[in-house]
Structure formats: C-alpha cells, structure tokens
Amino acid sequence: MARPLRIEFPGAFYHVMVRGNQKQTIFHDKQDRVKYLEIIERYKKQHSFLIYAYTLMINHVHLLIETPKTPISKIMQVINLTYTIYFNRKYKKVGHLFQGRYKSYLCDKDAYLLSLVRYVHLNPVRAKLVKTAKEYKWSSHQDYLYGSKGIVESDKFLRLFSEKTSDARRLYKAFMDESIDSIDNGDISQAVDQQILGDDQFIEKVEKEIETLHTPLKRPPLKKIFSLVAELTGVTQEEIKSRSRNNRLMFARFILVGVCRETGYRLVDIQPELQRDLSVLSRWSVASGSKEGQRRVQEVLKYLNARLQA
Question: What distance in Å separates the CA atoms of residue 117 and residue 175, rounded to the nearest whole number?
C-alpha cells in the first residue's frame, strides 16, 4: 500500500504518535519508561532536535518535536529501533514492537504550540487514567509545573506566557486547568491529507521551504489525477475504467491507485470511480509499490504538483 511521503525540512515542527504493534503494551514498568526517555535524551544530544512535550501512555507515545537539522524520519528510526532492541531483549521477544509507520503531523508551531502542548499533556485525562494532568507522572507536564530539568524546552514554551518564570508557571497552570470540555480538539485532529496542521498560508510557507516537493500538500481532485495518469501513460480514462485486461492497462491502473494513495485518498474513495472490489484495488495498490511502479508514481506526483501550483 502506498504511503504519504514525509514532509521534512530544517526547522520543521511535528506532532508524532507512536503506537504498539496491534495495540500491544510498550511500557510494562517504570524502568521501561525511564529507558525510553533516556534514549530520547541520548539522541537529542546527537541530533540537536528539540522536545516541547511528551506523554508516555501504556501502548503509545505522543511527542512534539522540532528538527533544526536531522530529518524526523532519521530521529524516529533511531529512537524506535534502540527501544525495540532493549524491549525485546528484556522480555525475550522478537519482531516488531511498534505498529508499522509512526504518525507525524507537520504543524504550524506559531499557531498551534499552545494547543498541542495542552492536547499532549491531557492525553491521560482523556483516557480516564487520571482526573488531572498533574496526577500523571509520565509526561512533561511536571517539568512545566515545577521546573525540573528534563528533556523538554520548558523555558522556551513558558516565555509565551511571561518572561518572569514564576508568573509563567502560574499562567501555564491556569491554562491547563481550564475545563477539558472547553478544549477544541477538532482543529488539532485535522490535517491536510493527514500530514499538515496549518492554514493555507502555512502550507504556502512549507512549499517554499521544500526545494523538490513531489507530493502535493493539498489533495487534488480525482479528475485531475485521472487526467494526468492518462496523459503520462497513454491510456485513456475510459480504458482505465474498462474491464479490458492487458499489461499496458493494468500498469496504468496500478499507477493511478498508487498516486491516489500517495495524495491521501482511501481505497473506498476511489472505488465508485473504478467500480472494482476493494480486494482488487488493494492488490493494485500493492503492485504500485514495485520499483518501476514507484518510479512512475513519483513522476506523476511531480507533474501533478507542478500543475496544481501553475
């Protein structure tokens, strides 16, 4: 199945969520959580990334990360791999600990940092593990309240409230003590193609940051995708939708489904257009992941993005 490309550039800010494979527990005891934070601290020094907030739940993790130099994909790769090795050795297990690909949302830090920190710190409250955020030990909320030296950039964040530390902590506490029911999580959970949390102006800023952007940041209309795939493969839209079968037609269908998946469409979204069972579309999606398929998918994405920005 084709997956959206990571949007990476120096100074990017992300809300990252990592889940246990099949929702399995990834932290069994205090030692596990301490080890995970130690790993983050180790690689934070090596790669100079910034952590603004974290919450370690039982089977998943929330992180707010800014990446001045090293791409988010490299950071999460070393963190997840190192912790998986530790976990498997300790519990005599083999295989994957984390669920496939972690989720990362590129976010407009200026617009959403306050809301995101509160969202991350209130995760245990929403999960009904505790009544208030300060009762939960395994989040960076404690660092903001009491000034303990952890892995988060608490000073940078608190200055958003006041230059005076004592006043900043008091205002932060009041901010966190607002009724959880009053918090609009809808904006935070929305992202363009499940990749970006920000308005059109932010998206335009991101596009300027990326010199070679192959994946459009805004989901293009299906008609536009069909038209461009037909143009670049020499297979008409009618042929793509037909029941005819030959190598040329099948390859065009693979590319079409691959491009749709890369730009954020689900198989159920394109099923009415292609009139095929989901199992068939799933096989086409897998086929688009071949070496040649991916090359052509990226070619279409490049032209598609150029057309959208023209």
Answer: 11
Task: Give the tens place of pLDDT for each residue, 120-131.
Answer: 999 999 999 999
Radius of gyration of the chain (CA): 22
Question: CA 61 to CA 98: how far, in whole Å?
Answer: 10
User: Residue 190 and residue 227: Cα distance in Å, rounded?
Assistant: 28
| Domains of the chain, each with CATH number or no CATH | 12-209 (3.30.70.1290), 222-309 (1.10.1750.10)
Instruction: Please give the structure tokens belonging to residue 138.
Output: 């395994």
C-alpha torsion sign, points 216, 222, 223, 227: positive
pLDDT for res 216: 54
The contacts of residue 51 (CB under 8 Å, 6+ apart) are 40, 44, 63, 64, 65, 140, 151, 152, 153
- For residue 55, is pLDDT > 60? yes
C-alpha span between 106 and 202 (Å, rounded): 10
Enter the pTM of the model: 0.67
